[in-house]
Amino acid sequence: MTTTTADTEIRAQVEPRAEKRVSPVWLVLAVLVGLFSLFHDGVRIWEKARGDPDRGTLGAVLGDYCRTDGFCVLREVQPGGPLAAAGAREGDAIRFDRPVDSLRAWRVGETASFTLKSEAGVVSHRQATTVAGPAPSAARILSAHLTNVMWMATGLAGLFVLVRSGRRPTVFLLGAGLACLGLSGTFPSVLESDPRFFPAWMTFAFVVFSSTPVLFLAFARSARLDVDERGRGFWTAVLALFAIVQAALCGYGLWTSLDARILPGIGDALLATAIVTDLCYALSVLALAGAWRAARGEARMRLALLLVATALLTGAQNGVGLAINMTGNDWSLGNPLVWALLIGSLAGTLVLAYAILRHRVVDLGFAVNRTLVYGVLSAGLLVAFGLIEWAVEHFLPINSHETGVVLDAGLALGLFLVFHRVRDVIEHAVEGVFFRKWRSNEAELNRFVREAGFVTQASALVEATVAALGRFAGGAPVAVYAAEADGYALVGGGLPG
């Protein structure tokens, strides 16, 4: 038999290509990174919830980065604090015997050894012992909880996508990017600031932060090439260029942090890092937009949702986060930028969840039905109301025992009365978002069953049955068989194979 060109083209369209798979080693490594990011975020929440009792201070504020000679300028010195008692004054410069001490978090009772250079140029070697720092305010604790929970939600989403990726490159890269984006920051906790482990922690944090925009760009490139091979060379070159630049900036930033000095003419490179990172994220969104324009059918909707989720998450957690750091590093809830970060991140997470649950951009491995969705919804509402009750008890001033009893009783009654109404409203909204098509298909099938009794010709009834069941099953193949004396005979439709 002779195989024609037309036969080859048809076979290429019908038979799926063998899809490449990511090595299990990379999958395990990405999952471990995501788990460690969650651990870091959880430790931050735990420390803030306890009021940071182990965090010590030298009673001074250092300049953001040290100079080329390794000395850091003291911007503020607290009167009566450990450094002030050691003879330090505002405007003096300090160089720690252990360079990482300029950046890590101190534990109460640690002894710092350093060289002090006064503004007059007098150099002397001193020591100071850290004391307990001021307890964070309730508003500061709440802000820390909200932001860290937000980062944890992003990291959990990344871990879920990784586990369900099937090692497919595009899905794997999305999960790895989200898992890395879940790291709340390079600033260490007290637990991570042990001098024995701090260099390893900083190396991990810098590598993760530098890899995140590159992973998102790699994900966007892969998603674009999945639907349109044009521009492969261009996007591959762009990805390679940004990977090299990010690696160089990562190495330099890590060196400045661990050695507490900068190179002349280069400085701290913070502006260059911010520009490159933002440009990398912007190109990721641009590549996803190109994939969306080239896609057709259901894939177009999936890519549109991934485009929106990526833009919201990266824009909020990187763009807005950078703006907060550049405008005074105020992470309190009184800063509108913090609310913009929280709202943008929440919106991005919800869009991503909708894309996964409703449009199945990731194979969940189980059916999403009403019981599952409403069970998760009810549990989420109970947790939310529990958090509200906890926040009221901790952040509202209670002057007497009687006031506390009345407040608890009123809060419990209010939550009881509101819970079912809120749940009904949200369930109605969820029903419209997730199950509208199912409900419509069910209504059409019921209408067909009612009208089927009026069909008089068997062939017409079989044809209508196949069409109705196909619509109800979302376009799945349907076959109708009739019972005969020796078995069953196909009378309508058909199944593949």
Summarize the structure in words.
The protein has 497 residues and is α+β, with helices and mostly antiparallel strands. The protein folds into 4 domains: 17-48 and 138-368, no CATH class; 57-132, Roll (Pdz3 Domain); 377-434, no CATH class; 438-493, no CATH class. The chain is built from 14 helices and 10 strands. It has helices spanning 5-14, 24-49, 82-85, 138-163, 169-181, 198-227, 232-259, 270-294, 298-326, 336-359, 370-395, 401-434, 436-452, 458-472; strands at 55-57, 60-62, 72-77, 93-96, 106-107, 111-117, 123-129, 131-132, 479-484, 487-493. Helix 4 (138-163) packs antiparallel against helix 5 (169-181) and helix 9 (298-326) packs antiparallel against helix 10. The longest helix is centred in the C-terminal third of the chain and has 34 residues, at 401-434. The radius of gyration is 30 Å and the shape is elongated. The two termini are 22 Å apart. Mean pLDDT is 81; it is low at 1-18.
CA-based gyration radius: 30 Å
How many separate structural domains? 4
* Helix and strand pattern: HHEEEHEEEEEHHHHHHHHHHHEE
| Cα-to-Cα separation, first versus last residue | 22 Å
Task: Please tally the β strands and state the result.
Answer: 10
> Which percent range fits the helix content?
55-70%
Numbering strands along the chain, what is their spatial order in the largest sheet?
2-3-4-6-7
| Beta-strand content bin | 5-15%
Largest sheet descriptor: 5 strands, antiparallel
Helix/strand class: alpha+beta
Round the mean pLDDT to the nearest integer and report it.
Answer: 81
Shape: elongated
